[in-house]
Amino acid sequence: MATAKKATAKAAPKAATKEAPKKATPKKEAAPKATATRKPNAAFMAPLNPSDKLAAVVGSKPLPRTEIVKKVWDYIKANNLQDSKNKRMINGDDKLKALFGKAQISMFELAKIVNDNVKK
Question: Domain span at residue 103?
Fold first, then answer.
């Protein structure tokens, strides 16, 4: 009797049936997104006055902090002042030594030096 129960408990083998191919559902068109342009943060765009040491490198007119850093990097690259072995280090020429206070700095120190040499 135990074998009879096992035989009935087993599912009958499924017949090999082909399923109908699924119909392709048309994709809904996405609603056009509003073309929101990204507005720059006003704090980054506020013009700052460079100190005399920094003005020797970037000029004396007020500039946003982002432009000041960009001009310092332009000066560094134009005068080939990145260390050839370790590109993270910046070698100072006469203008930059006065700004840095030492002969060589890390590029990560540059933001702090710029921050210390600007006034609102």
Answer: 46-119
Q: Dihedral (C-alpha) 51, 53, 58, 61: value to the nearest 10 degrees? A: 30
CATH of the domain at 110: 1.10.245.10
Q: The pTM is what?
A: 0.62
Query: Cα-flanking dihedrals φ and ψ of residue 63, to 5°?
Result: -135, 155
Asked whether residue 2 is assigned to any structural domain, the reply reads no
What does the alpha-carbon distance between residue 46 and residue 32 come to, in Å, rounded to a whole number?
34
The C-alpha atoms of residue 116 and residue 101 are separated, in whole angstroms, by 12
> Residue 58's closest CA among 39, 76, 33?
76
Could you report the per-residue pLDDT of 21-64, keeping only the tens digit for each? Answer: 666 666 666 666 666 787 766 777 888 888 899 898 888 899 99
88 CB-near residues (< 8 Å, 6+ apart): 106, 107, 108
pLDDT confidence of residue 4: 58
Could you tell me which residues come within 8 angstroms of residue 60 by beta carbon, excluding any fewer than 6 positions away?
Answer: 50
